[in-house]
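Before going further, learn to read the protein records used in this course. The integers have meaning only within a learned vocabulary of local backbone shapes. To see the layout at work, look at the sequence and tokens printed below.
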Amino acid sequence: MGNNNGDTASTQGALDSEAEITLGLLNAVHENSDITQRSASHELGIALGLTNAYLKRCIKKGLIKVSQVPANRYAYYLTPKGFSEKTRLTAEYLSSSFGFFRKARNQCSEMLETCAAAGWRHVALAGAGDLCEVMTMCAADFPVELVGILDEGLTGDLFSGLPVVSRLTALGNFDAVIVTDLSEPQATYAALVRDISPAHVLTPPLLKISREETPMERQGAA
């Protein structure tokens, strides 16, 4: 029995590592289509051979598309399936991360400190949930007023004492928005920057949001 449990734990650890590497690779490609296998290897902190293996696996699964560009280089893009998988893995990573609340508390404080330093006194949140709740607790330590939460799924309700709306205009005047959506953070960010300046949309690092528009996204918007 002891050996079986040990094997299970070891297998689970391997699975967690596999998901984390895959998420890291998808995130790296999303942020930079010109990324090379060597630079991805350096960014992820894994061997070049392992990076090559994961990249080939992602291409085979239809998560990443590769095309040749001039000078015998290759460009990598996330496919729609790749975007969906990145979203799913991000949600799993956040919900299972042992240090979530410690990281969340530290990063929420950093976001609020940035708002205070910029003179942004009225701040909205995008996405109800655990991260949003941590943000509301941290806000008491800063000269910042949280005006409400944008979340279509909870429209009309209160969350952590704040009104929840489906449209930003329903929140009145605000200086900035902090993304707190754990389920689809990238999509929430993309929707926000269609309406307001990206400079006024803050994204906690733990959400792994890419702030750069990829060629595929630009083509889809055209």
Remarks:
- Confidence is low (pLDDT under 50) at residues 1-16, 214-222.
- Residues 18 and 88 are 14 Å apart (CA to CA).
- Strands lie at 64-69, 73-78, 122-126, 145-150, 158-159, 162-165, 176-179, 201-202.
